[in-house]
């Protein structure tokens, strides 16, 4: 970042600022600059430098970290809503809930009101960044924040989990820190909570793997790697789509040209 310049106000509602920021975060995350529930400290100055080039605006690392936390909270609220099991419209990316359901849900989760009239912006990219499918190495994939190790691309179509699969659940850095006298009880609570969450995620992964029908992930990835590299955020938007629905994989494989495939990926991020 340039010295002696005025710091700009961060506006993560602005579609252009938000989009550039998320794309840069995806690039850093997939160059192995993740750290726990966020990015490594060294990633923020690089993102700030790139944003200055793209937007001619200067941001501090703290502003960018706050932006990450804000979008992570948004994603977690939205994701919890999708886990209710019904009422989510994949076309409009909104929730078709009756008024009574909204009223009951908002009483318990008032912050969900932000999605009453509009969808989560950049939902595909945020899924890839915080909870979707994110490549973390040739044999590691993340499903909903859970790292599945030892899964080759060719094995993701299998109806059973590989024997060497291990699960690692990342901590939510937004949880409040406990004082020393509360630490022991907190550890027990967190351990129990993590165990339940891990089992939940494991069941979810199993369901995803068992329901892979149509073209295989490997087949789709072969075409994708011909068109894009992992540095491009669209790469992860496409991967997330492949894991989400077999219809997406069928569309991808059956398209007549690569130009149409690229246009289709672009449409998913809108």
Folded structure, characterized:
There is one protein chain. The protein is of the alpha+beta class and about 270 residues long. The chain has 3 domains: about 15-130, no CATH class; about 130-210, no CATH class; about 215-270, no CATH class. Helices cover about 55% and strands about 10% of the residues. Strand 5 and strand 6 form a beta hairpin. Helix 2 (about 45-55) packs across helix 3 (about 60-80) and helix 7 (about 215-225) runs antiparallel to helix 8. The radius of gyration is 20 Å and the shape is globular. The two termini are about 30 Å apart.
Blueprint of the fold:
Elements: H1 15-29, E1 34-35, E2 38-39, H2 43-55, H3 61-82, E3 88-89, E4 94-95, H4 99-108, H5 123-131, E5 134-135, E6 140-143, E7 146-149, E8 167-169, H6 180-210, H7 217-227, H8 233-244, H9 246-254, H10 258-268
Helix pairs in contact: 1-2, 1-5, 2-3, 3-5, 5-8, 7-8
Protein name: Myb/SANT-like domain-containing protein
Region (Disordered): 154-199
Domain Myb/SANT-like: 17-105
Report strand %.
5-15%
SSE-based structural type: alpha+beta
> Number of helical runs?
10
- What is the CA-CA span between the terminal residues? 30 Å
Cross-sheet strand order for the largest sheet: 5-6-7-8
In helices, the fraction of residues equals 40-55%
The geometry reads as: globular
The domain count comes to: 3
Q: Let me know the number of strands.
A: 8
Largest sheet: 4 strands, antiparallel
Radius of gyration: 20 Å
Low-confidence stretches: 132-179
Assembly annotation: single chain
Q: Report the mean per-residue pLDDT as an integer.
A: 74
Order of helices and strands: HEEHHEEHHEEEEHHHHH
